[in-house]
Each structure stands twice: as C-alpha cells, then as structure tokens.
Amino acid sequence: MSEPAILRVERLELSFVPMPWAFAHERRAEIDAYFAALRHERPAVWNGRVLLLHRYAMRDGVLRGDFLETDYASFAAWNAWGCPPAGAYDCFGAAAIAAADGAVLLGVMAPYTYNAGRVYFPCGTPDPGDLVAGRLDLDRSVWRELAEETGLTPGDVSAEPGWTAVADGSLIALVKLFRSAQAAEPLRARMLAHLASEPQPELCDIRIVRGPADFDPAMPRFVTAFLTEYFGTD
Questions:
Q1: C-alpha to C-alpha distances, 177 to 25, 50, 57, 63, 124, nearest whole angstrom
Q2: Considering the chain, what is the average pLDDT of its residues?
Q3: Please, where are the H alpha helices in the chain?
C-alpha cells in the first residue's frame, strides 16, 4: 500500500450537491444487518445523517468539492468493509492541537464509540448542521468537534491559516493546526477535566505526543503521516 499523500491547502470551497448514493441503495439489506449487529454490541452508536465527498479537484492551493448526504449506517458499513469503490470519499476536518512546548495532544476514543480505542485528533464526519447557505463550513465542523471533545474554544487556542490535506485512498483528512499558549501537561489536565465533566464523553483519555517514539499502532495512518511531517522526521 502506498504512503498517504500530504498537500498544503490554502482555501476550501465545499458545496452541498445532493445525489443518491448508489452504495447505500444497492446494499441496503446488508447494511441494515451490519448496523443492527453493531448496535447490539455498542448500543450508543448513532445513526444520524452525514456528508460524504463525491467529487473534488485541487488547483492552486484551493480544494473544491461536492458533498452528498447519507445515513451513518451506510457510511459505517462502507468503512467496515474496507471502503470499496463507491463514488465517495471520507473527507473530514481534524484538529491537531499543538502545545506551547511543541508537543501534540490526541484523544483516545471511548469504548462505546464506533472507533473505540483508536488514537485520533479531535474530528468527526461532517453533517447537515455544518451547512451554511449550501456550503460546507469545515471550520465550523472542526471548532465544534474540538469544543465537544476537549472543551477548548477560540479563547484557548488559535487556528493557523489553511489546512494540511492527508489523502490515503478513499480517506481525505483536512487537518487544521491549533496552537495553545499552555504546555502539554497542564493542557492535558484541562482537557481531562472537561472529559470528567461530561456524562458520556467521546474520548476516554488524552495522549501527549512529543515525537515518533510516542506513535501508537492505534493511530490511523493519516495521523502518523501528519505527525511525521510536523516533527520533521522521515
């Protein structure tokens, strides 16, 4: 398998262009059976509406793309089955939180979630609540996920301009770098306090990564690809 590609993106122009997702229709019975089994194992898994990229182009630092709407069950099944070619891409925003001492903080997904145990940047599949006048506002999506998962707000961190796109097959992670004036340890303590205050937090722990020695097999490839570039390692 080839390594993920990393591109610098200065601006996003993402539109909502609804269309039926053939995969969700053609494999409906299999999807419903898969999701019923998943819900039996993890009853809290949500089946709302999500947005998937179905067409995109990159030129002169601008990523333009169109998104369709589908149900989470179809998206989850597609993911679980290895993302077979289906005219869609898993495109989402992710928040890389850089502490004042250069470390990066990531979250460990809680046992009840679909991605239990995985070590991620705060992120989430965009949904219709991220649409503004027919456009997908990925900045809004990332800030929402950051606040929900860590408690951090614009008063706590500053967002760097632009994005780092990490493309890995059907996955396109758009990573936004957020910088904090706090060092990693007190920032982690603050984030853990937020998790403790939530009745059912999506994260169960916060990891501090100071370099490749802290990489974990539970980190998806897009995470380690971004971190490798961030820390300037090969």
A1: 37, 24, 22, 17, 16
A2: 96
A3: 22-26, 28-41, 72-80, 138-150, 184-197, 221-230
Strand duo 131-132 + 135-136: pairing: antiparallel
Torsion angles phi and psi, residue 87, rounded to 5: 70, 30
Q: CA 66 to CA 77: how far, in whole Å?
A: 22
In this structure, which amino acid lies at residue 186?
P
Domains of the chain: 5-230 (3.90.79.10)
In angstroms, the CA 214 to CA 46 distance is 31
Q: Write the CA distances from 69 to 15, 128, 163, 167, integer angstroms.
A: 12, 8, 23, 21
Q: Token pair for residue 170?
A: 């059907």
pLDDT in the model for residue 1 = 64
In percent, how much of the chain has pLDDT > 70?
99
pLDDT of 234 over the 70 cut:
no
Q: What is the mean pLDDT of residues 12-40?
A: 97
Indicate the DSSP class of residue 2: P
Q: What size, in residues, is the chain?
A: 234
CA angle 26, 221, 1 (to 5 degrees): 70
Arithmetic mean of pLDDT, 97-109: 98
**Is 175 in contact with 226 (CB distance < 8 Å)?**
yes
- Residues 178-200: what's their mean pLDDT? 97
Q: In this structure, are strands 171-180 and 163-168 parallel, antiparallel, or unpaired?
A: antiparallel
Strands (E), 60-170: 62-71, 90-98, 104-109, 119-120, 123-124, 131-132, 135-136, 157-159, 163-168
For the cut 90, the answer to whether the pLDDT of residue 44 exceeds it is no
